[in-house]
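[#protein-structures] MJ: dropping Sulfhydryl oxidase here for a structure pass
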Amino acid sequence: MAAAAGAAATAAAAAAAAPRSPGAPTAAARARRLPPLLVLLAAAAAGPGAGGAARLYRAGEDAVWVLDSGSVRGATANSSAAWLVQFYSSWCGHCIGYAPTWRALARDVRDWAAAIRVAALDCAEEENHEVCRAYDIHFYPSFRYFKAFTKDFTTGENFKGPDRELQTVRRTMIDFLQNHTDTDRPPACPPLGPIPPSDVLSLLDNRDGRYVAILFENNSSYVGREVILDLLPYENIVVKRVLDADEAFLEKLGVSSLPSCYLIYPNGTRGLMNIGKPLRSFFSSYLKSLPDVRKKLISLPEKPNKEENPEVVIWREFDRSKLYTADLESGLHYLLRVELATHRSLAGAELQTLKDFVTVLAKISGIFLINRIKWVGCQGSRPEFRGYTCSLWKLFHTLTVQAGTHPEALDGTGFEDDPQAVLQTIRRYIHTFFGCKECSEHFEEMAKESMDSVKTSDQAILWLWKKHNLVNNRLAGHLSEDPKFPKVPWPSPDLCPACHEEIKGLHSWNEGQVLLFLKQHYGSDNLVDTYAADQEDAHEGGAPPEGGEQERGLVSPEKPQGEQRAKSLRPPSVLPPRPDLSQGLQLGLDGEHQSVSRAEGHREVEVAVPFLGMGFSSLDMSLCVVLYVASSLFLMLMYFFFRVRSKRWKVRYHRLSV
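AK: finished. structure tokens for Sulfhydryl oxidase:
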């Protein structure tokens, strides 16, 4: 964690080295704001995280065991059962789309809970950030197996299936159980291996008052093991499996096809079980319905069932034609304090990617790092919709537009005169750090296909716009799509009528008009500070900001857009000027608050100091002191060593000259 924070500080210092963008406004308007990005980057990895994430799984409603930072270690450590835990993020579109499969899997293997349990932990929850770092979770969703009776802390074993379909995951769960040794196998789990055909003869004379079901199957079948686990919580029945039995022996028992089940009754009668289809569900259902076969009274640990307070959703009125500072800064907050912080240390290509990304941010983004999340234009009708991914797209579009309209901002960074510089930096960031692995792979495929064809800054702006629309088209109708904000080609006709044309009855884009629209929409003149942190600070102790009435309750996203637009925005003329990011970085380096009064400067220091100490324990501080003392002693020893050596050299030289 310290290494990642250090990497962030190094990247920030590199970003601040280049000259400030011309025409930056004064810093007086930001005096009462949280500290600028350079100061905060060093502590970003340890700073407070995003709150209010929406859970995809609910304790008591789903068969999934819902874990959190307070329960995951206790649940998986020295457990009598194995665990399969999905570490996910509720903003991740792939995680949202996969949630029904995970719920279905948990329901499907509910009867296996005494042997192996299906759980989930939301890494987007603020309280879970640290534990997800401890388990070394970089991408979502990540699947980890934890063996039974594991005493020492472990980050678990990675899921190694060819895909994540329900049947594949279920079979890998069986393989994982079979990888346990006899000493650490869950005590409730019966042996899953096959018995030799010779043992079947002894079972035919069964007289212990229980049913014995013998499943004959081939070597590649999982049906027998699945049925054994399905019947795990039931008593008065034993299930065995036999592989590759002799054909003559099978014929003697009347078995003509595989898989088949031969049933021995408690009274000694026996025969081939007659079911409609040779499927796991048919076998299990038939065996569970036999007379006197009933569920055991198995004592399972209580599922973690932390009381969940319903989240109060505050709807903030916004204008879709505007770009909101709050969205960009909230996205930057999550990017640096949560996503980046999952990497314990950075070196080599990863560190260089971070340096380059922060350099681009510092020079052309014009935004600051805050310590909370407040979506405005990126709000969703439910907390798990839009949010972070929406803000990333807005941030990336802003970077390409600003690089095209203010190319001088990148002078001295090594990115000047390279129209692909910003796109390639975004590409490397997504590939290296973006939590949704499937999303990053899709973006990389698009980049490999055509990013090299970009030859001008205007082409870079249009390239990102085209790919964004491709992603919208691919995700239209996906479970991650917000029904109140459907994924449609953008900009829509109401936002940019000139962007849309018809040629021979078919829709066509006027790319020249699209380019003009993008430059206006993501330009600094369209950036609105409503709901930003400095706007809230400006109203402390005074009248509430405009739109405060809407913040006290939920305003339906179904309101007509015109009505929202009429009430949402403060006229830009009354907004205080905002310094760009590079000026904030310079202020952070030099400490020059020339236009800020002493009282205002003191308030900023009061804000900055407790933040910089956040995340560093007394042990961390003690180690710093020890290292400082040790390095001082080492320097003193080296000084005396060379001092004594130089005196000896002088004496020897003097004798030779005599």
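MJ: nice. The mean pLDDT is 78.
AK: one more thing. The two ends are 61 Å apart (CA to CA).
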